[in-house]
Amino acid sequence: MFLERRHLQSLQAIQEAGNLARAAERLHITQSALSHQIKTLEHYFDVPLFLRHTKPIRLSPAGLKLVQLAGQVLPRMAGVEDELSRMASGEIGRLYIAIECHACFDWLMPVLERFKADWPAVEIDIRLGLSFDSMTALRAGELDLVISSDPFEASDLQFRPLFDYEGRLVMAKDHPLAERDFVDPEDLREELLITYPVSRDRLDVFKHFLTPAGVEPRAIRQSELTAVILLLVASGRGLSALPDWVLRYSQQPTSLTSRPLGENGMKGTLYAAIRSVDEASPYLNEFVALAGEFGPGGGEGAPGSNVGLRPSG
Per CATH, which fold does 165-266 belong to? Predict the structure, then answer.
């Protein structure tokens, strides 16, 4: 493409200044350099850009068309350059998040509220990363951060720990297992287990507790909402395995209690996965810091109590 930004700036300056001398001064070039630039344009397009022998200089129809283009293009280019500069400084950007955790929304909402207040120019989008390969999407640039409890070694990704958690079996206080200090996999063989509607390989209770022991619950019921799961458990409709931080963040009936899964408990860590090339991003680092701060026991948005739940032994 022959037409360049400087050509549009020159034509715009000539129209505004009314003569070549003042336009050249405004552009910080010599008058002869400006005149040569205009002649080169006219030669290339084979059309005059100015009406000769007029004072002040008047544009030809072709020149007016290019100045009209300059009025449209130059402000947009300047705006994009400003945005790129602000992106480079970390002032603005994009934060597309996928959550590999069906229960994370209750915890994430206050994090996002605080983050948005601090970084209003950062565009935010959230996707549930249980229905697609979120790590592939992160690597492809379709996402910027993934909340996951399953880190792995990768030179192009970083898994930053947010907080530790414990999987707990939640039940009504009058359930027989409430008399136990902890539950074994066999204790769930005759129970109805209420889970989120995701595959078993995404549920810690199966992946780390039941499947290794070769135990299958009597039945499984699914619900998308944590509040509904807790109400079903409180009404004696079944049991559910949930992270302790989910219980802290959820509004729940006081008739619930919980027990460790196994004598040593089923422990895990929640991570924020980002691309290694983005490790210096100010707003990504701020989000990760806030996410950890709002985890169990920390942050002004963290819940204050664990109503109706028995602490881990």
Answer: D-Maltodextrin-Binding Protein; domain 2 (3.40.190)
